[in-house]
From TrEMBL:
Protein name: Galactokinase
Enzyme class: transferase
A biological process term (GO) from this entry: galactose metabolic process
Gene name, Swiss-Prot/TrEMBL: galK
Every Galactokinase N-terminal domain range: 3-50
Protein's UniProt keywords contain Transferase: yes
């Protein structure tokens, strides 16, 4: 495996990291001006970099041979393709925002499983952004880096993602969940330490062929925007939970109606989860996870059989609550379990998957971890 020096014929100036994330609750609410509560994972993307003076970039990953090269002053949306579009997008958005970045050699390493819905794309954008800024000694507020990373993914890569993933990658802290109010653009760090309560948070990658096709995500977002327009509100966050039935009665399309019901009830579930966690009642958050999954399955229609089987099996094995997490159509579930039941719960899921003929799942550590930083 090639070293940085072998790839670029120079020593690196430093390494920067940005983590993936798992969302505890608040799914598909971020682009509706809603509430979310992710944690950062110990799994991360590391970008090792050296500065260049010619305004050019060379990007490589230890997972693939060769490198991709491009010039900073020639970047425009979609001008670089495949995985290199993400570091190119980071360079493009920083240039557009007026930051005096220069060219760079970039080597990307990751222990985030691709396609698991743990936001490897946001982590790559954030890690590249902090590396390019760090090479020039430029300090930028983490939330601003997150907003720029979202802009890069929206406008450069062309993916209509919300802001949650980037904020989690930049702004999470160890031992906490990030309570992020998108409409207010405000954050709060909520203590989250399952081990202290004798609990564990399982993250299970169901290894399903990731069916999170752009068209399905875009269709859900379009339905939400259509509903907001019909209801005369700027976003579905403005639909009061207590007035939900009245709002649903004003909608003519049943599919749109179900999409709205998910978003409004999911925002309320985030509020309830925060209240319970502040009260030290983490066990009582479990049923909110399960209710979220049912809503995502029945009203938002973004689960797949592997996700449903994993959730049902975890609950049957005694989990306090379980839900799919991420964009859907594949990816991961989370399950809140008694710490001494973590291994038996995972074993039950593995057994159920074998019986259904699914690929074997895998699990990840879900220790709440810090956001992006310099490593060396």
């Amino acid at each position: 495996m090639s070293t940085f020096e072998e790839l670029f014929s120079t020593a690196p100036d430093g390494s920067w990291r940005a983590p993936g994330r798992v969302n505890l609750i608040g799914e598909h609410t971020d682009y509706n001006d809603g509430l979310v509560m992710p944690i950062a994972l110990p799994n991360q993307i590391v970008v090792t970099a050296s500065a260049r003076t010619d305004g050019r970039f060379a990007v490589a990953t230890k997972g693939q041979p060769g490198s991709t090269e491009f010039a900073l002053d020639e970047l425009e949306p979609h001008s670089v393709q495949d995985w290199a579009a993400y570091p190119a997008g980071a360079a493009w958005v920083l240039r557009e925002a007026g930051y005096a970045i220069g060219g760079a050699n970039l080597l990307v390493e990751s222990d985030l499983p691709s396609g698991a819905g743990l936001s490897s794309s946001a982590a790559l954008l954030c890690a590249t952004s902090v590396a390019l800024l760090g090479l020039q000694g430029i300090t930028v507020d983490p939330a601003e880096v997150a907003r720029l990373a979202q802009k890069a993914e929206n406008q450069y890569v062309g993916a209509p993602v919300g802001l949650m993933d980037q904020m989690a990658s930049m702004c999470c802290t160890a031992g906490h969940a990030l309570y992020f109010d998108i409409r207010a653009m405000s954050t709060d760090q909520i203590p989250f330490d399952p081990a202290a309560d004798g609990l564990a948070l399982l993250v299970v990658d169901v290894k399903a062929p990731h069916r999170h096709v752009d068209g399905e995500y875009a269709a859900r977002r379009k339905s939400c925007e259509q509903a907001a327009a019909e209801l005369g509100v700027p976003a579905l966050r403005s639909v009061d939970f207590d007035q939900l039935d009245d709002a649903l009665a004003r909608l003519t399309d049943d599919v749109v109606r179900r999409r709205v019901r998910h978003v409004v009830t999911e925002i309320r579930r985030v509020e309830e989860a925060v209240e319970l966690m502040h009260a030290g009642r983490l066990r009582d958050v479990g049923p909110l996870f399960t209710a979220s999954h049912v809503s995502l399955r029945d009203d938002f229609e973004i689960t797949v059989p592997e996700l449903d089987v994993a959730v049902d099996t975890a609950l049957a094995a005694g989990a306090l609550g379980a839900r799919m997490t991420g964009g859907g159509f594949g990816g991961c579930i989370i399950a809140l379990v008694e710490a001494d039941a973590a291994e038996s719960t995972l074993a039950a899921i593995e057994k159920a998957f074998a019986e259904h003929g699914f690929s074997a799942p895998s699990s990840l550590a879900a220790t709440p971890s810090p956001g992006a930083s310099r490593l060396s």
